[in-house]
Amino acid sequence: MKKLCMPVFYILLPLIIPMMVGLTFPRTTSSRISFPFSNKGEISDTITTLNVKTSATEKIPMETYLVGVLAAEMPASYEEEALKAQAVAARSYIISKMGGGNPDHPEAQVCTDPNHCKGWLSEEDAKSKWKTADKNKYWKKLTNAVKATNGEYMTYNAEVVEAFFFASSGGKTENSEDVWSSSRPYLRSVESYGEALSKNNVSTVTFTRSQFAEKLNPHLSQPLDLSKPPSISEPQRTEGGSVSTINIAGKTFKGTELRSIFGLKSANFTVSATDATVTFTVKGYGHGVGMSQTGANYMAKEGHTYKEILSHYYTDIEFSKL
User: Fold this and answer.
1) Taking the CA of residue 89 as centre, how many other CA atoms within 13 Å lie in the half-sphere pointing to its CB?
2) Which residues fall within 8 angstroms of residue 215, CB to CB, at 6 or more apart?
3) Could you tell me if 49 and 60 are in contact, meaning their C-beta atoms sit under 8 angstroms apart?
4) By three-state DSSP, how is residue 178 classified?
5) Which tens digits make up the pLDDT trace of 168-219?
6) Angle at CA of residue 85, ends 42 and 197, nearest 5°
7) Contact 229, 275 (CB under 8 A)
8) What pLDDT does 62 receive?
9) Is the dihedral of CA 71, 74, 76, 80 positive or negative?
C-alpha cells in the first residue's frame, strides 16, 4: 500500500500546493478599487455624465468620453506622448471619483464643467475650434492617444491616484497640502522643466487703487486708505514657489485666497504698488498640483515616454489596467 500511495501523493502534489498557498496568502487584486463594479464583478467601462451645455445626462463608454476630455483639457497640437500622459491622468482622475456620489449632480458620476469635474467637448464642438486643415488630424490624434493607453490608470499603494493636472507652473509643482487641506503622498512638489518656453507663462494684472480697494475691502475689517499705497509684506512661499501667505493692509491672506479675489492665473505671484496702481506679476496657470501640461509637452519633445512623464509628476505611482 505504501508503494502505491507515494505516486498518488506526487500526482496530487501540484494540486495541493496552490490550495495551501491560497489559504496562507489571501488573494489581492492589482487595484483594490472602491467604485462601482458591473454585475459580472468587473470594473464598469461606462460612466454617467452630465453635459452642462445641454443639461442632459447620459451613459458614455469611458474611452469614448476620454477623447472629449482631451479635446477640452489639452491642446491637440501637443506631442503624442504628452497626450497619452494626459489620457492616463484623466482616466485615473475620473476613476478615482466614480465611487462616491456627487451632491451637485447626484444623477451623474461626472460633469463636463472644467471648474467642477473635467472639461469635455463633443467631436463637433472640438472641431469647431480648430483650423479646417487640422480638424480630422487633431481628432484622430486625440483618439489614438486614448487607444494607445486603453484602460491604463495609475495607483499608489494599490489605490487609484487622484491625478490632478494643470496648464503650467513657475518651474516647480506644488505639494497638495500647500494648495488644499489634504495631503497626497503622490502629489509632491517636483521640478517642472521647459515652463519658461511657454509664451503665456508670465502674466500681469494691474488695478487702479480704487479697483484694488473695491475687491479687497469686503475682506478687510476697515476700508483701505486711498490716499496712500497699501502696505504689502514680503510673502511666505511654498516649496513649489507659490505664495503661501502675505500681509496686505494689516491682514494676512493665503495666496490661493488672493488668486480667487483678483482672478489671477495662479498663486505664484509678486505684487507691487505705486501711488496710482497695484500690479500682480504671475507665473504659471492653474493650481500647480500634479502634472503640468506644459512641462509634460516639454518632456515629450525631449524624448520621454508618457509613463516616464507620469512617473515624474506623480511620485511613486504604479500602472494598472482595467
Assistant:
1) 32
2) 207, 261, 262
3) yes
4) helix
5) 999 999 999 999 989 999 999 999 999 998 888 999 999 999 999 999 999 9
6) 165
7) yes
8) 92
9) negative
Expressed in percent and rounded to 5, the helix, strand and coil fractions of the chain are 35, 20, 40
For residue 8, give every residue at least 6 positions away whose Cβ sits within 8 Å of its Cβ, in sequence order, or none. Answer: none
Q: Cell numbers 487609484 correspond to what residue?
A: 160
pTM of the model: 0.84
pLDDT (tens digit, 9 = 90+) per residue, 37-54? 222 234 467 888 898 889
H-type alpha helices, 74-118: 80-96
What single-letter DSSP state applies at residue 180? S
* Residue 142: how many other CB atoms lie within 10 Å: 25
Residues 269, 281: contact at Cβ < 8 Å?
yes
Distance CA 193, CA 3 (A): 72
> What residues contact 161, with CB distance under 8 A and at least 6 apart?
92, 93, 96, 153, 154, 155, 186, 314, 317
Half-sphere exposure of 274 (CA within 13 A, CB side): 7
Structure-block grid coordinates of residue 278: 497695484
Q: Give the residues across from 206 on adjacent strands.
A: 279
Residues of the chain with pLDDT under 50: 1-43
Q: Do 239 and 172 contact (CB within 8 A), yes or no?
A: yes
* C-alpha span between 223 and 47 (Å, rounded): 49
**End-to-end Cα spacing for the chain:** 51
